[in-house]
Amino acid sequence: MTGADWADAVAAVSGLPASAPVLLACHVNPDGDALGSMLAFGLGLRRLGYRAVQASFPEPFEVTEPFLGLPGLDLLVPPAEAVAEPALFVCFDASSADRLGALAGRLAAPSVVVDHHASNTRFGKINLVDPAAAATTVLVAGLLDRLGVPLDRAIAECLYVGLVTDTGSFRYEATTPAVHELAARLVATGIDVGTLSRRLFDTRPYAAVRLLAEAVGRTVLEPSAARGLGLAWTYATVDDLARYGQRPYALEPLVDSVRAVAEADVAAVFKQVGPDGWAVSLRSRGGTDVSRVAVALGGGGHRLAAGFTGYGSLDRVLDALRTVLDG
Ligand code: 5GP
Ligand code: MN
User: Residue 187 phi/psi, 5° resolution?
Assistant: First the structure.
C-alpha cells in the first residue's frame, strides 16, 4: 500500500458533495473489527457533514449481543434497503467480494476496499489493503486522520472494539508499538475499557457456557495430522444450538479453547450452518499458514487465523481439511 493509495481514498471521499449517497458495508456475520471499522467510518463521515450515509451487511441482518451498545448503529439499514447506486461504496474487513453477499452488486459504483486480510483479492477500484495491519480499524483510524476527523469518544469506542477483537486483546503478533499508540489515543477519549471488554469477551448466558463446555469436551487430537504438527478439532451442530437455545454467535469463543491444545499446531472448529454446511474456523500456533489452507478450500483469512465454509457431512469436510493440511 502506497501514499498514492491513501491519497486516492481521501480524494474519493473529499470530492463528494455533502448530500451524496454513501454506502458502507462489511462482511457477512460481522465481528468486532468489521462492524467497528464500518461504524467508526460512518460516524466520521457524519462529523464531516455527509448527510446520506448508510451502513449495511449481508443477511442474516442481525447485530449480535456484544455489539448492541455500539455508537453509530443508527447508520445501519438492512441490505434490501441499501441505496442502489451510491456515489461511493466503501467496504470493510471483507477479503473478497463474495463476503458482501448481495451488496457486492454495489461494486459497480466508485469503491474503496479497506481491509487487512492476506488473502484479499483487491476487488475495489481503490484498495487500502495492508496485511500487516493488526485490524481493519487501524486502517480506518489512518483514513479518518487523513480526512481531518477528530477522534471523539463514539468513534474511538468503535475503533477500540475492532482493535481489541482482532488483536485478541493485544496478544497476537501484529500488536506493534503503533497498535498500542493507537489504543492509547482511543482510551484517552474516555471510553470505558473494562465495561467494553466484559461485554465483548466475558459475558454469556449460562446455557452458552454449558454448550461451550460440551463442545470443548469432545475435542479430538490428531497428532500426526498437518504433516505431523498436529490437529485439534471439535464441532457444534444446529441441534446443539437448539438444545441450549443459543444463536450461532454463542460458538465464537469455542476456537479459543481448542487452539490452546499444546500438542496441535492447527485448531479447527466446525460449526454447522445448515443441513449440509459447516463454517470452519482455523487457527495455527505458527507452523502452518491457515490462510493458504482456507483459500484452497474456498475461504480466506490471515496466516494464523482463517476460515472457510465446507459442504457435505462433517467427515467429508474434515477429510478435505486433513488433505489440504498434509499437502
Ligand atoms: P473466524 O474463525 O473468527 O470466523 O475467522 C477467522 C478469520 O478468517 C477472519 O479474518 C475471517 O474474516 C476469516 N474467515 C472466516 N471464515 C471465512 C470464510 O468463509 N471466507 C473467507 N474469505 N474468510 C473467512
Ligand atoms: Mn479484521
Answer: -65, -30
